[in-house]
Amino acid sequence: MTESCVVLAIETSCDETSAAVVENGRYVLSNIIASQVDLHKKFGGVVPEIASRKHLEMVIPVIHEALEASGAALSNIDVLAVTKGPGLVGALLVGVSAVKAIAFARKLPLIGVNHIEGHIYANFLEHRELNPPFVCLIVSGGHTQLVYMKDHGCYEIMGQTRDDAAGEAFDKAARALNLGYPGGPVIDKLAREGDPNKIEFPRAYLEEGSLDFSFSGVKTALLNYINSKKQKNQEIVVEDVAAGYQEAIVDVLVDKTFQAVKYKKVNVLTLAGGVAANSRLRQKLVERGEEEGVKILYPGIHLCTDNAAMIASAAFYRYKKGDIADLTLNAHARLSL
Q1: Listed residue (34, 41, 30) closest to 16, CA to CA
Q2: Percent of the chain surpassing pLDDT 90
Q3: Alpha carbon 11 to chain centroid distance?
Q4: Residue 251 CA neighbour count, 13 Å, CB half
Q5: In what order do the strands lie in the sheet with 79-85?
Q6: Contact 257, 223 (CB under 8 A)
Q7: Residue 220: burial class (beta carbons within 10 Å; 0-12, 13-18, 19+)
Q8: Comparing C-alpha atoms, which of 63, 91, 107, 245 is closest to residue 166?
């Protein structure tokens, strides 16, 4: 491997078509994201077939744009990377097929990256001084996991959701309250104007010592609250509902995360995934971190969403370890870290 290693990566696991050029796993030369949010809004969630078709339309233009924005040509690329899973299999296959074609034509090494691993590596792009070991809380629309990163490529899943992911719980709440899609940002915004103590929603801590999560109960409590108010013809103060609901989810996330930090005796905690953009979650983690002497790191908003730069960063460290795929690389809808 040369002293400078430039990675071109593609991410198409859900509803963002993204391509990025990253140098040495830490320096983002370009990170282009074509979002499909407006396409899926009217359906209240991502429609897999529509997502796949849009990826087919956008993947080549996005790659060209990423190369142009970085000032690099394909001849300057040392390594190719792609998200291989988990995600929507049709969407994943678009990215995997595109990267395999380039790898074959240019005879370049190819790295398949786990999407969840990519989210962890968003922190390495934002905080160049960061090194393992640390605990990472990964919270998104499809995943909620507590991961101990001992070293590059070495992970221990300490806890995960047994039902709904945190982001999924926010989206379902927004749908029940007719707030539109995606729900997380809307709930976050409304919650700032509400009273988090006005409505008490349940917090599921599960059995003693468990670091797993469960958000189906708080979602059911919300639906029951809405139905009860409607039956009694009573006003629903959406801001207070959003604040109380968000607080219940955030409290559990924060408490369990700091349990994990104590178990592993680390003093660095990172945050990753789409819900990492939630302002209340960031605030409560930072406050708790100051109390307990734990450094809290999280990516900028642009790196919380699905993006190819995080995939390129993870791929760089896999490449350094010699973890190179061949042209039989395939997409996997379900893929553990």
Answers
A1: 34
A2: 93
A3: 12
A4: 15
A5: 27-35, 16-23, 6-11, 79-85, 110-114
A6: no
A7: exposed
A8: 245
Question: Which pLDDT tens digit goes with each residue over 133-165?
Answer: 999 999 988 889 999 999 999 999 999 999 999
Tens digits of per-residue pLDDT, 32-77? 999 998 889 888 889 999 999 999 999 999 999 999 999 999 999 9
Nearest 5°: the CA angle 92, 125, 310 is 5
- Cα 56 from chain centroid (whole Å): 22
* DSSP 8-state assignment for residue 332: -
Q: Are 99 and 74 in contact (CB under 8 A)?
A: no
**Helix, coil or strand: residue 323:** coil
Phi, psi values for residue 270, rounded to 5°: -115, 155
Cβ-count burial 260-271 (b if 16+ within 10 Å, e if not):
bbeebebebbbb
* CA 110/CA 327 separation, integer angstroms: 8
Residue 16 near residue 35 (C-beta atoms within 8 A): yes
Domains of the chain: 6-122+304-320 (3.30.420.40), 131-299 (3.30.420.40)
Give me the sign of the Cα torsion angle 89, 91, 94, 100.
Answer: negative
| Identity of the amino acid at 180 | G
Positive or negative, the Cα torsion across 127, 131, 134, 139?
Answer: positive
With tokens 């997380």, the residue in question is 184
